[in-house]
Amino acid sequence: MINRNIWLKQLQNGWSRRSIVWLSGVRRVGKTTLARMLPDAVYLNCDLPSVHRTLEAPELFLDSRDPDRVLILDEVHRLDDPSRLLKIAADEYPHLRILATGSSTLAATRKFRDSLTGRKQAIHLCPVLWEECEDSFAVRDLDRRLLCGGLPEALLAAGKNPDFYNEWLDSFYARDILELFGIRNRRGFLSLFRLLLRQSGGQLDYSRLSSLSEQSRPTVKSHVEALQVAHAAFLLSPFHGGGKREIVSRPKCYAFDTGFVTFEKGWDIIREDDRGLLWEHLVLDALRFQHADKDIFYWQDKSRREVDFVVRHTRDRVDAIECKINPDRFNTVSVETFRSIYPHGENYIASPHLKSAYRIRRNNIVYTVCTVKELMRLQSSE
């Protein structure tokens, strides 16, 4: 069992703002397990016909709920009209705490006629964070987390099983992409998804993806959008403030899980040169836990100088975050160039193998070298 206390706290924080928490995330990421960790909750699996019948008269059902017990509606998008039930609950029964789970962003799925704007608190459950691994005796091995990924079943298995990843991809298409988005070209969609997994962490080139997947450019763009909505891909925008030499338009695309990246690349072990890019994925997950997606960027100029991640706090204050397995090999040129344009903000070097955080000065720029756990703590206190 993996300690998921940080996510339980997220749920409680969500209910302090709204009566409905919408918990989304890819299939088998642990939504049901997390929901069942809530003490004394009422659990309903919306896949079951009996639950459909129970919820046919929402007011009769909600009238009988105990306000001291959380109501869990697992896989709520399987209902015929899920937004109607949740809207009634939010408007007429605000004293009830409801946890609704689903695979994708609620507002973009075809079954939801109402996005419940202002009525819900959305939480995206990502694969197991490295901080959670550090807190669990079972999965403290970084290479294991990078190779197997963060879906609990794969992470806790005795070894990496290719059948798990193949089956997941088939199920993801059938249960999420086909049902929720109506994309019927299975071969084309999965071909594109596999390309994105192999290229994860690189800049997105729609024209090249169109050529490689043998699909039109508009089709590729619509498929990438579906992958974003289903939390299987994340587009990281370039940060820019009008400088003539900055990259301004090409996002990077990160796959949702390192296990699928290594699976699609055909890796059965993690070599030294593999760790850097995969480590970026874990740092990005931590940043997305801490900040809104709209505030996270990367930075690059036309001379290929690059800062891994930039977090925007205010108009004039941005943090620079570099991901390094070995912080002693850190090249300061890119951050120095970035700070010559954007001088205000903190500078971090995130590394997995540190006993405690420390600060260094390089060419008049101060950096905090820290673990992801320390990075999350420091970012939350800013």
Describe this structure in words.
The protein is α/β, with parallel strands linked by helices. The chain contains 16 helices and 14 strands. The strands form 2 sheets. The protein has a 9-stranded mixed β-sheet with strand order 6-8-7-9-10-11-12-14-13, sandwiched between helices. β3, α5 and β4 form a beta-alpha-beta unit. The chain is globular, with a radius of gyration of 22 Å. 40% of the residues are buried. The model has no long low-confidence stretch (mean pLDDT 92).
Question: In whole angstroms, how far apart are the ends?
Answer: 32 Å
Individual helix count: 16
Helix content: 40-55%
SSE order, one letter for each helix or strand: HEHEHHEHEEHHHHHEHHEEHHEEEHEEEH
How would you describe the oligomerization state of the chains in this entry? single chain
List the keywords:
382 residues; alpha/beta; 9-stranded mixed beta sheet; 5-stranded parallel beta sheet; 40% helix; 18% strand
Helix-strand layout with pairing:
Blueprint: H1 5-15, E1 20-24, H2 31-36, E2 42-45, H3 49-54, H4 58-63, E3 71-74, H5 82-92, E4 98-102, E5 120-124, H6 130-134, H7 142-148, H8 152-156, H9 162-181, H10 186-198, E6 202-203, H11 206-213, H12 217-229, E7 233-238, E8 252-255, H13 258-265, H14 275-290, E9 296-300, E10 306-312, E11 318-323, H15 333-341, E12 347-350, E13 358-362, E14 365-370, H16 372-381
Parallel strand pairs: 1-4, 1-5, 2-3, 3-4, 7-9, 11-12, 12-14
Antiparallel strand pairs: 6-8, 7-8, 9-10, 10-11, 13-14
